[in-house]
């Protein structure tokens, strides 16, 4: 991909991502870091197909499951089972393939008592459990996660983290964003640092995190001068 633009109210063009070029190998776990507004979520949305780049191209090889926000791809008027089927179909799976996974998805999400309830009646935590469980249990080739495990209670977070690690052990491809630097250092094979819409560094987690810390220091120093 090359770039993607956003527009302000006065129609001035702002490049959310500018001249992005990268290759992610099968089985890699890639952490994406950067300050708020740097373009991390936009990058994941382009990879998932939610956004289209203004120029350039994108090649995806395999089934991809995005977890970009609570309930992405879900419909309010459908119940859990119906949403699971819809989500799976959107990802390119057949209805029979998805139906075989429904019981496991509902069980992992701990929604056995609520699987016939319409999504509009779910709490944010219930939605997040359903979304994460669906993405993991349908076993995609590629998993995209924005702010991984940022929602849910402590018990479900631990359960989800174990499932995430198991997914990684299966040599699946994972691209995720997080502000948790310890997670970045522990889980990532490589790290991508985005600053002001550009990739400024790709490489070993420790090297990229060190460079990121310098950007944070520079940013904080600038803010101190302003205020």
Strand order across the largest sheet:
4-5-6-3-7-8
H/I helix tally: 8
Rg computed from alpha carbons, rounded to a whole number of angstroms: 19 Å
Gap from first CA to last CA: 38 Å
H/E series, N to C? Answer: EEEHEHHHHEHEHEEH
Given as residue ranges, the uncertain stretches (5+ residues, pLDDT < 50) are none
**Could you say which structural class the secondary elements and strand pairing correspond to?**
alpha/beta
Mean pLDDT: 85
CATH topology of the largest domain: Rossmann fold
CATH uppermost class of the largest domain: Alpha Beta
Q: What portion of residues is helical?
A: 40-55%
> What is the number of beta strands?
8
Number of domains: 2
CATH superfamily of the largest domain: P-loop containing nucleotide triphosphate hydrolases
CATH architecture of the largest domain: 3-Layer(aba) Sandwich
Tell me what portion of residues adopts beta-strand conformation: 15-25%
Indicate the overall shape. globular
Q: Describe the biggest sheet?
A: 6 strands, mixed
3D structure, described in words:
The model has no long low-confidence stretch (mean pLDDT 85). The chain folds into 2 domains: 1-62 and 141-227, 3-Layer(aba) Sandwich (Rossmann fold), CATH 3.40.50.300; 71-140, Helicase, Ruva Protein, domain 3 (Orthogonal Bundle). The chain has helices at 40-48, 80-90, 95-99, 102-109, 124-137, 154-169, 181-187, 205-226, and strands spanning 4-7, 13-17, 29-33, 64-67, 142-146, 173-177, 190-195, 198-203. α4 (102-109) packs across α5 (124-137) and α5 packs parallel to α6 (154-169). The N and C termini lie far apart (38 Å). The protein has 8 helices and 8 strands; from the N terminus they run βββαβααααβαβαββα. With 227 residues, it is α/β, with parallel strands linked by helices. β7 and β8 form a beta hairpin. It is globular. The strands form 2 sheets. A 6-stranded mixed β-sheet has the order 4-5-6-3-7-8, sandwiched between helices. Strands 1-2 form a two-stranded antiparallel ribbon.
């Amino acid at each position: 991909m090359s770039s993607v633009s956003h527009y302000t109210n006065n129609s001035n063009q702002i490049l959310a991502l500018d001249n992005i070029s990268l290759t992610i190998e099968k089985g890699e776990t890639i952490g994406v870091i950067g300050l708020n507004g740097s373009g991390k979520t936009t990058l994941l949305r382009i990879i998932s197909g939610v956004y289209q780049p203004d120029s350039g191209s994108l090649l995806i090889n395999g089934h991809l499951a995005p977890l970009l926000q609570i309930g992405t791809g879900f419909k309010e008027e459908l119940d859990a089972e119906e949403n699971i089927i819809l989500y799976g179909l959107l990802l390119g799976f057949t209805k029979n393939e998805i139906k075989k996974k429904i019981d496991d998805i509902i069980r992992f999400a701990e929604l056995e008592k609520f699987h016939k309830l319409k999504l509009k009646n779910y709490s944010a935590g219930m939605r997040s459990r359903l979304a994460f469980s669906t993405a993991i249990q349908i076993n995609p080739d590629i998993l995209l996660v924005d702010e991984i495990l940022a929602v849910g209670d402590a018990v479900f977070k631990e359960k989800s983290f174990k499932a995430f690690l198991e997914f990684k052990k299966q040599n699946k491809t994972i691209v995720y964003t997080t502000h948790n630097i310890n997670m970045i250092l522990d889980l990532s094979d490589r790290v991508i640092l985005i600053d002001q819409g550009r990739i400024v560094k790709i490489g070993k987690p420790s090297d990229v995190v060190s460079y990121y810390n310098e950007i944070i220091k520079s940013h904080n120093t600038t803010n101190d001068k302003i205020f």
